[in-house]
TrEMBL record:
It catalyses: a 2-methoxy-6-(all-trans-polyprenyl)benzene-1,4-diol + S-adenosyl-L-methionine = a 5-methoxy-2-methyl-3-(all-trans-polyprenyl)benzene-1,4-diol + S-adenosyl-L-homocysteine + H(+). Its EC number is 2.1.1.201. NCBIfam families: MenG_MenH_UbiE (TIGR01934). It is a peripheral membrane protein. One of its GO terms (cellular component) is extrinsic component of mitochondrial inner membrane. S-adenosyl-L-methionine binds at S108, D134, N164, G165, S182. Coiled coil: none annotated. This is 2-methoxy-6-polyprenyl-1,4-benzoquinol methylase, mitochondrial. Pathway: Cofactor biosynthesis; ubiquinone biosynthesis. One of its GO terms (molecular function) is 2-methoxy-6-polyprenyl-1,4-benzoquinol methyltransferase activity. Belongs to the class I-like SAM-binding methyltransferase superfamily. MenG/UbiE family. Component of a multi-subunit COQ enzyme complex, composed of at least COQ3, COQ4, COQ5, COQ6, COQ7 and COQ9. SUPFAM superfamilies: S-adenosyl-L-methionine-dependent methyltransferases.
Length: 294
């Protein structure tokens, strides 16, 4: 898997060197005997190919990331993220602060900066650390660009790591207090492996918080939402000259497990999931799942 570790203060993202053979190529050859398939949107692809295909999507949309999210959610993703951050802190572990946060698939930095802002505003906490992990260097570059516009630009509490969230082999076992993944886990090739890894890196008492597109629980809203979704690739073409990536994003939402099924996967990883297990946002267009490593 990708092994570039980017300490912002030590190595500007613009100077990332990509060693050959690339991770994607290495993965393909490692897994050449593995004929297992998975979905890439509505297509069936080899598991070994999915990482590369998802990488292409996010490299393509990285520079238009905000527009993409605003179009896909009509701007509501900002409210969902704010709510997610508040909810996580409301349930923060009793061990107190500072905390070691890890935000996986966190390229944009939205959740990472939001969690630190909230920690400061609510707990006067300016000691907690944040590791932002993403498989895609282009997305992490966007996150670092944004960092320069925040008060954290000279703050070495934030580090960036290019790595696959299914593996996180540069993150020690039992080392993090709060693990977040926002609109990222549905892109993992093996979602269960990602959840198992989250369990591994969290300390006992640590919390996992997942914000993800989900299944609408209201027939009328669902009909409107399905119709709206059909236009998203068209908007993608008009705004970002990219029909296919937006088509993938819509299909990846459709393929993501139902709330109850996803709750079971979180439990399967070992987490205790407080009832009811998830909170639907906007009739289930998105949902927040919380689990605790006991
Ligand atoms: C829709 S963006 C979400 C970014 C951010 N978390 C947010 O909420 O704005 C999805 C991100 O997941 C990342 N991603 C996809 N598969 C991944 C994996 N296996 N491990 C880590 N990151 C992954 C993509 O590179 C992309 O940056």
């Amino acid at each position: 898997m990708l092994r570039q570790s980017i300490r912002r203060s030590a190595a500007p993202l613009s100077k990332i060197t990509r060693s050959a053979p690339s991770t994607q190529l290495r993965c393909l050859s490692d897994l050449s005997n593995d004929q297992k398939t998975t979905h890439f949107g509505s297509k069936t692809v080899l598991e070994s190919e999915k990482e590369k295909l998802v990488g292409q999507v996010f490299s393509s949309v990285a520079s238009k990331y905000d527009i993409m999210n605003d179009v896909m959610s009509l701007g509501v993703h900002r409210l969902w993220k704010d709510h997610f951050i508040r909810k996580l802190d409301a349930g923060a572990r009793p061990g107190g602060r500072p905390l070691d946060f890890i935000d996986v698939a966190g390229g944009s930095g939205d959740i990472a900066f939001g969690l630190l802002d909230h920690a400061k505003a609510r707990f006067q906490d300016d000691k907690s650390t944040m590791t932002v992990v993403d498989i895609n260097p282009d997305m992490l570059k966007e996150g670092e660009k944004r960092l320069l516009d925040t008060k954290y630009k000279n703050d070495d509490r934030i580090s960036f790591l290019v790595q696959n969230g299914e593996v996180l082999d540069q993150i020690e076992d039992n080392s993090k207090d709060v693990y977040t993944v926002s609109f990222g886990i549905r892109n993992f090739t093996n979602i269960q492996a990602g959840l198992n890894t989250a369990y591994r890196v969290l300390k006992p008492g640590g919390i996992i918080g997942i914000l993800e597109f989900s299944k609408v629980d209201n027939t009328v809203v669902d009909l409107a939402y399905q119709n709206w979704s059909k236009f998203l690739p068209v908007f993608g073409q008009a705004i970002a000259n990219d029909f296919d990536s937006y088509q993938y994003l819509v299909e990846s939402i459709q393929k993501f497990p139902k709330q109850e099924d996803f709750k079971s996967m979180i439990q399967e990883a070992g987490f205790y999931v407080p009832e009811p297990g998830y909170e639907n946002l906007t009739f289930g267009v998105a949902a927040i799942h919380i689990g605790i490593k006991l």
